[in-house]
Amino acid sequence: MENLLRKSAFYGFLVGIGYAILFTKYKETTDLGEGLSETTYLPVMEYVITVLQYGVGGAVVALLGSWLIGKRTKVNQDAVKTYYLEVFLGIFVFCLIMGTLFNL
Predict the structure, then answer these.
(1) Number of domains in the chain
(2) Residue 64 class from Cβ within 10 Å (0-12 exposed, 13-18 middle, 19+ buried)?
(3) Nearest Cα to 8, choosing from 73, 101, 92?
(4) What is the C-alpha to C-alpha distance for residues 9 and 2, in angstroms, rounded to an integer?
(5) Residue-wise pLDDT tens for the chain (104 aa)?
(6) 8 Å CB contact between 16 and 57
(7) Closest CA to 65 of 47, 40, 97, 91
């Protein structure tokens, strides 16, 4: 069971970071009129902290999800059914929804 939790947290962290890299806004463009625009970039440390926050959030969600699944199914050590795909898809969909809501 501990190995499953460790792997779930690790993969959740990777999925959260991957999602954050894809969807975190790192620049803001302001229209100044007359065809001019100004682009302001987010400082690197602030971007890195934001990406890591998504990664840690994904790890926590994956850890809780796999713990609940393992607790509910009473994992048998001889015939272990892994729920990697189900946990991965659940976390991925959750991160997509939350990221979309917070970026509106």
Answers:
(1) 1
(2) middle
(3) 92
(4) 11
(5) 677 788 888 888 888 898 888 888 888 888 888 888 999 998 989 999 989 998 998 888 888 888 887 776 665 555 566 777 788 888 888 877 887 787 75
(6) yes
(7) 91
Which domain covers residue 79, as residue numbers? Answer: 2-102
Structural contact between residues 61 and 13, judged by C-beta atoms closer than 8 angstroms? no
The dihedral formed by the CA atoms of 52, 55, 57 and 59, expressed in degrees to the nearest 10:
-140
Among left, alpha and beta (phi > 0; psi -120 to 50; other), residue 36 is beta
| CB proximity list for 98: less than 8 A, separation 6 or greater | 57
